[in-house]
Design goal:
The chain has 252 residues and is α+β, with helices and mostly antiparallel strands. The protein has helices spanning 23-27, 34-41, 89-95, 104-117, 123-128, 174-181; strands spanning 2-5, 46-50, 54-58, 70-75, 78-86, 132-140, 145-150, 159-162, 168-171, 185-187, 192-195, 199-202, 209-216, 222-230. A 6-stranded antiparallel sheet has the order 2-3-1-9-8-10, with helices on one face. A 6-stranded antiparallel sheet has the order 4-5-6-7-11-12, covered by helices on one side. Strands 13-14 form a two-stranded antiparallel ribbon.
Length: 252
Amino acid sequence: MLGVFKNGLVSAPKELNSPSSSFHQHEEDQDQHPLKHFLKSYTNAFSISFGNDVSLAFDPSSQVPLPQQRLFCSMDDIYCIFLGGLNNLCTLNKQYGLTKVANEPMFVIQAYKTLRDRGPYPAHSVLKELDGSFGFILYDVKSKTVFVSLGANGEVKLFWGIAADGSVVISDNLVAIKSTCSKSFAPFPTGCMYHTEGGLVSFEHPKKKMKAISRVDSEGVMCGATFKVDMYSKTQTMPRVGSEANWATWGV
């Protein structure tokens, strides 16, 4: 799966940008555009773009045994690409009023809509309830909100990086990330979520800050930083969530 978000829609941490990246080389090579690279790599892949802001791509033929299934769903102008599987999906569907046949991205969209519209349950509490291996990218067209999360067990892997034009690229395809982001990429941190308003947060430790860890490749070149929970830190008091302050304006 692939998500490409124009600079400004997703504000990646500045530490993700490597000073060693030679972006001018990528700008001269149109084939290195992340979407073009992804579609070229997967002959059965399809993509959807929303103006010049967002592009999502998905390869339905890349099905592998659970928990690494790949699924795509859209409802009410909300789009979700899901990688992995949830062991407690039936229970979650019942809890959120979905039918038994609803799959993982259907549940993610419904959970997001519930958080966005009705609160007051914080997003990190919902993600903690997910039992299984998962990674997903969600985009809400109407509010231009991006929501990305990766499970804590590490069985599903996502990567994110900064492309030549400043776009943020998120994908499970490491080759596509490396080809389009040069050295400005890193693994997306496990047990974390990214929300357009809230930024990068650990859903396992939402009151702790995230810290950047410098990363050098085998050639000794500085790459985009990885991010881990700073267990000795503490964020500011988390805002109350309710009818006057719903999840659409703060991701946690």
